Amino acid sequence: MSLSGYIPEAVTSQNLLERLVAFAISMLPDVGFWASTIVFAPNDIHRSMEQNRNSSYGLLGKMQVDIMSMRNFGVGFASYLVWKEGGGFEESSAPLVSYATLMVLFWSSQPVLFRSKSKDLRLAHSIATTVSAVTTTVLFWRVTRRASVLMIPFLAHLSFTALRHWVCRDRKRRSFK
């Protein structure tokens, strides 16, 4: 059984520049996330990660940064696949514009979630990010199915975050009654 049908061309290509472009595009979501975190919420994200490391999440809490980086790399590589296999910006502009919208929402999540006092704004931002991620995944599916499969961990993380927020909210409500 050959894996050549599943490995993207950029990985098997001997062209170093093409590999560097694929790597740079794949790193873009992670670099943007950490840049917005460092600029807007350095203390808040550090405190949140410490709470996760020391919580009952166990290994998942300790590996949160690694999981986030792998998930972000997958999303970035999915955009590269759409750009490469979709014929560039001219032929696959709708999925790439949707991806750009998702990245703007994703990169702005740290200031909104950690600095905003408005619960309504945080909820609206979370809903907009989720809708944008689902839309991007569907549009990626139309170009290349491999790219949409790489988006699944991102969607799973958004679902996990929403579930965790819902459980924590219900715990707080019960504790005050």
UniProtKB/TrEMBL annotation:
Membrane-related topology note: Multi-pass membrane protein
GO biological process, one term: tetrapyrrole metabolic process
Secretion signal, residue range per the UniProt entry: none
Compartment(s) where it occurs, according to its Swiss-Prot or TrEMBL record: Membrane
Keywords: Membrane, Transmembrane, Transmembrane helix
One Pfam family in the UniProt entry: TspO_MBR
Highest taxon, organism lineage: Eukaryota
InterPro entries: TspO/MBR-related_sf, TspO_MBR
Chief place of localization: membrane
CC terms in the record's Gene Ontology section: mitochondrial outer membrane
Recorded family membership: Belongs to the TspO/BZRP family.
Protein known as: Uncharacterized protein
The organism's taxonomic lineage, starting at the top: Eukaryota, Metazoa, Ecdysozoa, Arthropoda, Hexapoda
